[in-house]
Amino acid sequence: MAKAAEYRLPTTRPHVMGILNVTPDSFSDGGRFNAADAALAHARTMIADGADILDIGGESTRPGSEPVALDEEWARLDPVLDDVIDLGVPVSIDTYKAEIARRACAAGAVIVNDVWGLQKDPAMAGVVADAGVHVVMMHNRLDVDADLDILSDIDRFFETSMRLADDAGIAKDRQILDPGFGFGKTLDQNFRILNRFDTLKKHGLPLLAGASRKRMVGAIVDGTAGDRLHGSLAAHLIALFKGAVVVRTHDVGPHADSVRMLEATLLERVPV
Predict the structure, then answer these.
(1) Catalytic residue at 214?
(2) pLDDT (tens digit, 9 = 90+) per residue, 202-246?
(3) For the domain with range 15-266, which CATH number is right: 3.30.428.10, 1.10.540.10, 3.20.20.20, 3.40.50.200?
(4) Is GTP-binding one of the keywords UniProt gives this record (predicted)?
(5) What is the SS3 assignment for 148?
């Protein structure tokens, strides 16, 4: 089990983060893995397929989803979290609730993946700092505004998130940024972010890309969420080529293979 005080996200190579939803209503795989045995089996499969990190969540954040009470979110996570952590791969907890993050980090999670970038729950930054874990600070919006300069909005949001992290004492080498594909954005804005993904490197932090099976992919390749592998893979490879360090995906095996090819090409060596 990776300990928070010891774990550092290596930024010299790309990482595949496998999605483990223990929710009944995820947009892509809702209900498939919310039973503890099924979730644990899926976690093992993702590890075998090459996952570097497992991201486990007990509340769907898809557009239009209903908020879940803290006790309900924990009731979904508690039966499986310890067993997933014991598998030995670094575990990320996907939550914007500080108390859920605190419990998960106490159990051994080494990353908090906050879809509101420390700006939803005022206690979150302190919890992350106290636990000594990494944090993914994702850009989000309540409303979609087609006239918005989305890249400038992301910059402003990230500056606030980074200030909150710094003020709480979260070390710079524990901070990760995610532009939040599909969260409060139009289709055009999502593709503008992908096209200009390299500009996000100016913030000086590792970048995560999470376009897996999202509607921006479906708008181009058509098909249901489960049919969007190839489009998701293309989006993530573009993001990796433009500077992403982590890609968050439902489809670990194909991503792990593609990342190895990209790594061998960009680094001009065969990874060992």
Answers:
(1) yes
(2) 999 999 999 999 999 999 987 777 789 999 999 999 999 999 999
(3) 3.20.20.20
(4) no
(5) coil
